[in-house]
């Protein structure tokens, strides 16, 4: 049995795997997540393995619990990976992006894969059919764009994700912002997919992240939506470490 945990600044995500099968996954505030993990894991399980990644604060109580109940692995930029990484500054590559690429390597071997993560930022990461990570791009996510319009102007309201107006031209300021931001993101994603498809044959596209469900229905291109892709990648890295 494997346990993987991603400790962020505002949320913690975790999952339990039996081999490649996800038995349980959850995300919650840091102050309650440890109790969730404790309630799901039996101490009777022999030498369970745990891999954790941390971009947020790690409470010492978490490490005490990890050390007492698991053989632990700390995922960082020195961790061996199940794919070839050609990024020129690997120490600056986000651990979340690395985990997404690991998931693609595991689930879609010998395949060209574009992973699009629609979170705070929208990230595009590409792994080739030779199991080589070639890089990607980063742009502002939906909420960041809404915040920027409000913050850098005097009169535009602070909006959040909502359904855009049915008309292509917004006839209120609210609809104009919703149309501009949402359709701008959709067009950006579609155009990126089109660009990659023109260069790489048989491209598989994965959409994940907090806004994936909202955006997937609006995209013109064929995609696979997977909200737990990062956790799958963390488990793939842990399996690689265990079998290395």
TrEMBL record:
Stated role: Catalyzes the phosphorylation of pantothenate (Pan), the first step in CoA biosynthesis.
Subunit structure, as described in the record: Homodimer.
Organism: Mesohalobacter halotolerans
Enzyme class at the top of the EC tree: transferase
Principal place of residence: cytoplasm
Keyword hit for Kinase: yes
Name of the protein this chain belongs to: Type III pantothenate kinase
Functional pathway: Cofactor biosynthesis; coenzyme A biosynthesis; CoA from (R)-pantothenate: step 1/5
Entry cofactors: K(+); NH4(+)
């Amino acid at each position: 049995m494997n346990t993987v945990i991603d400790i962020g600044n505002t949320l913690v995500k975790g999952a339990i795997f039996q081999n490649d099968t996800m038995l349980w996954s959850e995300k919650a505030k840091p102050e309650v997540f440890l109790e969730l993990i404790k309630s799901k894991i039996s101490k009777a399980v022999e030498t369970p393995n745990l891999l954790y990644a941390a971009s947020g604060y790690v409470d010492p109580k978490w490490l005490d619990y990890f050390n007492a109940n698991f053989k632990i692995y700390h995922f960082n930029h020195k961790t061996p990976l199940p794919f070839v990484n050609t990024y020129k500054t690997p120490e600056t590559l986000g651990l979340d992006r690395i985990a997404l690429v690991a998931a693609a390597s595991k689930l879609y071997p010998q395949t060209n894969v574009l992973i699009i993560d629609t979170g705070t930022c929208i990230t595009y990461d590409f792994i080739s059919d030779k199991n080589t990570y070639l890089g990607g791009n980063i742009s502002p996510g939906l909420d960041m764009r809404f915040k920027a319009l409000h913050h850098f102007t005097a009169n535009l309201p602070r909006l959040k994700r909502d359904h855009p107006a049915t008309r292509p031209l917004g006839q209120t300021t609210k609809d104009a912002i919703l149309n501009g931001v949402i359709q701008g993101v959709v067009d950006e994603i579609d155009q990126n997919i089109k660009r990659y498809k023109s260069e790489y044959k048989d491209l598989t596209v994965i959409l994940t992240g907090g806004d994936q469900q909202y955006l997937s229905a609006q995209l013109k291109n064929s995609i696979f939506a997977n909200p737990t892709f990062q956790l799958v990648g963390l488990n793939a890295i842990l399996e690689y470490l265990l079998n290395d």
